[in-house]
C-alpha cells in the first residue's frame, strides 16, 4: 500500500490531530494540497510547510521498570519510573525518508535548560492562548517523560538537541510567518516557542497511543512469572495501531523495553496531522521468539548489563582502531569498552576517553560525556557498530606503516567498510 493511499484511509484521524487546540498566534497556514512527507515527486522548497529530509516521525515509548533500589514505595517509584500502569515518552524522532536520520542539526538552537524556559512569562500568560501553560506542560513532562532514575531534565535536553533541532517546520523563521498581527513581537522568543512546541506536540501524539491499554486488551500485562511470545505481543500492538507494524524493542533481560510508532506528516509539525504508517525499513525486533517478559514497574534487576570489552576491526580491511579512534595496520589494537548510554544505545570508550566526532567529522576518542556519541551494537547481527542507524564507515586513504588514517561515518570516502566490535571478555 502506498503512503498516499494511507492518507485517504486515515484522513479523518489526521483531521482530528490537526484540529487540536492550536496555539492561535502560530497556527500554520499551509496549502491544503501538499503531499504527505516522503511522498513528494518534486522538490517542495517551503521548509515551513513540508518536512524534509526527516519526514518520517517516530513516537517512541519507554517501559522502564527497574528502580534504583528494591524497597521504594509507590510515590518514590512513580517519581523515578512514571505512572506504574503506563509507558512513558522516549521522544519524537524525525527519521529521513531515504533511511537513517540526522541529529544535533543546529548547534545555535541547542538548549541547556527546559524547566526554567517553561516557567518563563512567555508560556504562563493568558494573552497567548497556549494549549497548556508552561508550568502545566512542565508538570506533564515530569510525569510522563521520564529519564533514568527520575533524572528527567537531561533526557529532555538531549531529545530536543538531538531530534528537535532537526525539525524544519518549527524553525524561528516559520513562527514569524505564522505570527498573529496582534502579538507583540518583542515579547516572544521564537526559539523558546519551538522548544515548547516540540514537547507539546510529542505529548499530544503520545496521548493517542496508550500502549499499556493496547496490550492489556489482549491479556498482556506486567508479571514476574508470566512470559509471552514475540508474535502475540507484536500482533496486539499492530492491531492497536490500525493494523500497521510497530517496532518492539527488548532489553538485556529479554523484557519489553520500548515501542516505536511510525508516522508521516502532512504540512507543518504545528498542524499535528500525523498519519500512521508501518515500521520503515523492515525493522525486526530484537526480542526472542519466546519467553519475552513484561516486568512490572518496581522489579529490581539484581545486576546491570555486563561491560563489554574488545577490539574494533575493519571489515574487508587489514588493521584496527587505536585508542584515539584512528585506523592503523601496525602495532597493537587498542582495547575498547561498550558502556550503557543513559539515553539509549552505547558509549564507546578507549583509554583516551569516550568516542565522538571532531569538527571535521572524524571519529575521535578523547571525549567527556558531553561530546560522546551514541553507538548501536547488536551481537546477533554480526557485532557491527552503527551510528545514526547506519553501519557504513569510510576513510580517504589507507594507513601506511606507523601513519594513522582518520575514519568517518557514512560511505562518502574512497574506502568504505564496517566496524566490527570483537568481544574479548565480560566482567
From TrEMBL:
Matches recorded under InterPro entries: Ribonuclease_T2_eukaryotic, RNase_T2-like, RNase_T2-like_sf, RNase_T2_His_AS_1, RNase_T2_His_AS_2, RNaseT2L_C
The UniProt record lists the keyword Acetylation: no
GO molecular function: hydrolase activity; ribonuclease T2 activity; RNA binding
Top-level enzyme category: lyase
CC terms in the record's Gene Ontology section: extracellular region; vacuolar lumen
GO biological process, one term: RNA catabolic process
Alphabetized PANTHER family for the sequence: RIBONUCLEASE T2
The protein's role, per its UniProt record: Rnase which modulates cell survival under stress conditions. Released from the vacuole to the cytoplasm during stress to promote tRNA and rRNA cleavage and to activate separately a downstream pathway that promotes cell death. Involved in cell size, vacuolar morphology and growth at high temperatures and high salt concentration.
Protein name in UniProt: Ribonuclease T2-like
Amino acid at each position: 500500500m502506498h503512503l498516499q493511499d494511507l492518507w485517504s484511509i486515515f484522513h479523518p484521524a489526521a483531521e482530528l490531530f490537526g484540529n487540536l487546540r492550536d496555539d492561535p498566534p502560530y497556527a500554520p497556514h499551509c496549502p491544503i494540497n501538499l503531499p504527505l512527507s516522503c511522498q513528494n515527486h518534486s522538490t517542495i522548497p517551503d521548509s515551513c510547510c513540508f518536512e524534509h529530509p526527516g519526514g518520517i516521525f517516530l513516537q517512541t515509548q519507554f517501559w522502564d521498570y527497574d528502580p534504583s533500589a528494591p524497597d521504594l514505595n509507590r510515590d518514590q517509584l512513580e517519581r523515578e519510573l512514571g505512572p506504574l500502569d503506563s509507558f512513558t515518552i522516549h521522544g519524537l524522532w524525525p527519521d529521513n525518508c531515504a533511511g537513517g536520520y540526522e541529529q544535533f542539526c543546529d548547534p545555535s538552537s541547542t538548549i541547556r535548560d527546559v524547566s526554567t524556559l517553561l516557567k518563563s512569562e512567555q508560556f504562563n500568560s493568558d494573552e497567548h492562548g497556549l494549549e497548556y501553560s508552561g508550568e502545566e506542560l512542565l508538570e506533564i513532562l515530569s510525569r510522563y517523560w521520564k529519564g533514568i532514575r527520575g533524572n528527567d531534565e537531561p533526557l529532555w535536553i538531549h531529545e530536543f538537541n538531538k531530534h528537535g533541532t532537526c525539525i524544519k517546520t518549527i524553525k524561528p523563521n516559520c513562527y514569524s510567518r505564522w505570527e498573529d498581527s496582534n502579538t507583540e513581537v518583542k515579547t516572544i522568543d521564537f526559539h523558546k516557542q519551538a522548544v515548547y512546541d516540540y514537547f507539546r506536540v510529542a505529548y499530544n501524539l503520545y496521548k493517542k497511543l496508550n500502549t499499556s491499554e493496547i496490550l492489556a486488551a489482549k491479556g498482556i500485562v506486567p508479571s514476574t512469572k508470566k512470559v509471552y511470545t514475540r508474535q502475540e505481543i507484536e500482533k496486539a500492538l499492530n492491531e492497536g495501531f490500525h493494523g500497521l507494524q510497530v517496532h518492539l524493542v527488548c532489553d538485556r533481560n529479554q523484557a519489553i523495553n520500548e515501542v516505536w510508532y511510525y508516522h508521516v506528516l502532512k504540512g507543518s509539525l504545528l498542524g499535528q496531522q500525523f498519519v500512521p504508517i508501518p515500521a520503515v525499513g523492515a525493522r525486526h525486533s530484537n526480542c526472542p521468539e519466546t519467553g519475552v517478559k513484561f516486568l512490572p514497574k518496581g522489579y529490581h534487576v539484581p545486576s546491570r548489563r555486563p561491560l563489554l570489552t574488545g577490539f574494533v576491526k575493519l571489515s574487508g580491511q587489514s588493521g584496527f582502531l587505536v585508542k584515539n579512534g584512528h585506523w592503523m595496520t601496525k602495532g597493537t589494537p587498542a582495547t575498547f569498552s561498550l558502556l550503557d548510554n543513559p539515553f539509549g544505545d552505547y558509549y564507546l570508550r578507549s583509554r583516551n576517553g569516550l568516542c565522538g566526532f571532531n569538527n571535521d567529522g572524524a571519529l575521535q576518542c578523547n571525549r567527556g560525556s558531553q561530546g560522546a556519541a551514541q553507538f548501536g551494537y547488536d551481537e546477533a547481527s554480526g557485532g557491527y557498530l552503527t551510528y545514526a542507524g547506519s553501519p557504513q564507515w569510510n576513510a580517504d586513504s589507507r594507513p601506511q606503516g606507523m601513519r594513522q588514517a582518520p575514519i568517518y561515518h557514512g560511505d562518502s570516502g574512497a574506502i568504505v567498510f564496517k566496524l566490527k566490535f570483537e568481544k574479548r571478555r565480560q566482567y
